[in-house]
Amino acid sequence: MPSKSLFIVFAALLVLGGCNKIDPNSPLGQRQAIFKQMLKTSEDLGGMLRGRLKFDADAFASGAVHLDELSRQPWKHFPMVKEEHSNARDEVWQRQERFDELARDLEASTAALAAASAVKPLLPETVAAPLQRVEDACEACHKEFRDY
């Protein structure tokens, strides 16, 4: 009897543990995955400029292009109404015009970073300001629309 009770408790914990998981195919899951890729890519680029990682011009240029591609993807995964587990503030849906403006600002800053990264020879001082603009664009949107 104890093993049957233990099995039931374990099965219940498995079921309840899965309740808070985000469906990776849902709009929320898709945009979270894109934002995580953007964060990883921008952290690597920043790490190269700040000495945490060795500066590699080819890797930096490739990362800048990848970040630019990623910056155009998450916006289509914001549905017309807010999902239950979203970390976005209600203002994303209430102030859509401003949200879209900040999204375009990010896209413009990542495009400028990719363009600056294409200039050879690629030097850290050449891409420091464009990367800072990308980071500033991310921060501006988070300050207005992310629910911390």
UniProtKB/TrEMBL annotation:
Heme c binds at residues 138, 141-142. GO terms for cellular component: periplasmic space. Gene3D superfamilies: Cytochrome c/b562. InterPro entries: Cyt_c/b562, Cyt_c_II, Cyt_c_prime. Binds 1 heme group per subunit. Coiled coil: none annotated. The keyword Electron transport applies. One of its GO terms (molecular function) is iron ion binding. Keywords: Electron transport, Heme, Iron, Metal-binding, Transport. GO terms for biological process: electron transport chain. This is Cytochrome c556.
